[in-house]
Structure formats: structure tokens, C-alpha cells
Write a structure and sequence with these properties.
By secondary structure, the protein is α+β, with helices and mostly antiparallel strands. It is built from four helices and twelve strands.
């Protein structure tokens, strides 16, 4: 192996930070008490049936609401609401109505009791199936089945937000379509 092709040892956290960006989601949860927060830990675990999962820290106010509720919505924000997305990730909903404070509109879910977010072009309604709390992980995972989705007619994937190592981005150009 030549010097320029030499691979370096790297710690696990540093290696994970080299992965490509992940989609940013706005989690909306709660019935009587509602909250919205920014989620960076999201994964699709199955396509058929469609099972998704989110990771959240137990110190978050939304964790409390997830524990009290059977469902939640994942809302895909566009770059036009970037400032609201950032504020949702840094401010706690335990001391304020985050929806009204950041200027987002909760709308009733169609098949769930938690709200979805009107300003997001893609809303995904999820019924909780399982919680994974290993105790030694820094996030608790909630897995759920997608029971309904809404998407705007003019949805454009190139406008959705991605998050990567402290940076918000949008997807780049398509390199090849197969």
C-alpha cells in the first residue's frame, strides 16, 4: 500500500462523524400537552411493513411525552424553515409552547392523536411498537409503524434538510439514476 493510500486508525465516534448526512426530522408528540423537537437520529428499519425509528435522550421533554403517548409524527422540514428547526432543537418545550414560540402550526393527525406540522412538506404518522433502552446508550430508541403520510404536490427532495457534524445541508445533485 502506498503512502497516499494508507488508511488511518480512527476512534468510533470520529468514524461515525465521517458518515454521510442524515435527514432532519421534526418530531411532534403529545395529545393534551404537545411538543415539537428536532431529531437527527432517524432510521428506516423495514420497508414492508414500513417501520421507522428515532433516538432521543431521556433528559428531553419530548421523551416524557413519548412515554405518555402511543404515537408521534415525523415531519420533514424544508430549507425555508431552517431557523425554526434550529430553535426547536435548542429550546425546551417544558417551559413554553414551542409551536407558537417558533412559529410552527400543529395540525391534527389523521390516524394518530399527536399533531403533525403544517409547514413541513412531508408528514409521517407513526404508531409506537417498541422502545429500546439499553441503559448504557445515550439515546433511547422508539420503533414504530408508519400508518399514514401526507406530502405536498410540489414536494422537492432537494429542499429537505440534512444534518452532518454540526452543519445543516440540502442534498446535492443526482450523480446517477438507475
Amino acid at each position: 500500500m502506498t503512502e497516499e493510500n494508507l488508511k488511518l486508525d480512527m476512534g468510533a465516534i470520529e468514524a461515525v462523524m465521517q458518515l454521510p448526512p442524515a435527514p432532519v426530522m421534526l418530531l411532534a408528540v403529545g395529545e393534551k400537552e404537545q411538543n415539537v423537537t428536532t431529531i437527527g437520529m432517524f432510521n428506516v428499519f423495514s420497508v414492508d411493513p414500513t417501520i421507522v425509528g428515532i433516538g432521543i435522550k431521556s433528559s428531553r421533554y419530548s421523551y416524557k411525552l413519548l412515554e405518555e403517548t402511543e404515537d408521534f409524527s415525523l415531519n420533514v422540514p424544508g430549507k425555508d424553515i431552517l431557523e425554526q428547526v434550529v430553535r426547536c432543537g435548542y429550546q425546551s418545550g417544558s417551559k413554553m409552547n414551542k409551536f407558537s414560540e417558533v412559529g410552527l402550526t400543529p395540525q391534527p393527525g389523521k390516524r394518530i392523536r399527536s399533531p403533525s406540522i403544517a409547514e413541513c412538506p412531508l408528514n409521517i404518522e407513526v404508531k409506537k411498537l417498541e422502545q429500546i433502552d439499553r441503559g448504557d446508550w445515550d439515546h433511547i430508541w422508539y420503533m414504530g409503524k408508519v400508518v399514514h403520510t401526507d406530502i405536498t404536490k410540489d414536494y422537492d427532495r432537494s429542499n429537505v434538510l440534512l444534518y452532518w457534524d454540526g452543519e445543516f445541508r440540502t442534498p446535492g445533485p443526482v450523480l446517477k439514476k438507475i
